[in-house]
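Input record (Table S2, row 354):
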Amino acid sequence: MTLSAAMPPDLRSDQALLHYISSEDPQEAEALFAAARELRSSHYGQDVYFRGLIEFSNYCRNNCYYCGIRGGNPRVERYRLSLEEILRCCRLGDLLGYRTFVFQSGEDPWFTEGRIVEMVEAVRKEFPDHAITLSIGEWGRESYEHFFRAGANRYLLRHETASEEHYRKLHPREMSLRERKQCLWDLKDIGYQVGAGFMVGTPFQTPENLLEDLRFLQELEPHMVGIGPFIPQADTPFRDYPRGSFEQTLRMVALTRLLLPRALIPATTALGTISPLGREKGLMAGANVVMPNLSPKAVRKLYALYDHKICTGDEAAECRLCMEGRIRHFGFEPNMARGDMAGWEQRKVPANAG
Ligand code: 5AD
Ligand code: FES
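Output record (5'-deoxyadenosine complex):
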């Protein structure tokens, strides 16, 4: 199917996109979701890919105003998993059938480049065929190359908002959107499958900002896109701002599917947190990935980016079964394979490795 055949006719104009970003008409939204589902099925059928998420450290040197584990929050009980604990999570995940591990942390200075390389090499040695995804923030290009050579395949780094002006309202001065975007381009160039993404309903966000997010995604053409509602966290500067709209988040998922037909798009935990069937509805709006938690139960609650996060009291095996049941109930098929992007071919060596 061609892109234009599945797209509502005028989706390529800014005006039309802005209309769908803002429209609260449920029938229009449903038409958008149906088109997104059809396009998703044409590339991936009813399959939903499972990724095992390991949140290995909640230390963070950054101070994003929205994030619960920001370095400036003294109320967070900090933890850091040892390499052996991380490997134990992987072994459990492997037994449960996972073939993708996602290693996520704050920007924790203890995890130097050398320690990350050591972690990736250890996982790669024990699991030669699994996909290794890193979600560990901003590094220089050379570090990204070293992680890639150590065996990492994918990298998640949400851009958070593609508007300079909006970015400055969500982050302290030390952080820069230009650098973040540069990281994404570098990662892509090195040969990673790259995930960008943004929050819906962060303070001061306008429909035009969301349009910029979509235009940036079209330019970057990431392999994965994470989209979730902003949810306030009580110990952050944004504690008193309202959460993002559930419906608008679903529309942004659908629009992203329509603009990037083959992208892997998770139905995020944040979406499941603000509505009991949030993740299922995310899948019905065009998402095709879920990321159940593999972190040890003892530390789950401590990785609190936002309040009331779901799945913090369940064992990994329970999450796995729970998601499987939920998905099947909505007519989807759990797929435990690596689930690379349709049409993806792994490059063996970084582009400029000489
Ligand atoms: N609400 C929703 N999502 C959040 N994230 C961080 N803080 C919040 C929050 N308060 C998201 C960011 C980050 C990802 C790991 O979690 O988009 O990239
Ligand atoms: Fe670390 Fe937000 S403060 S990601």
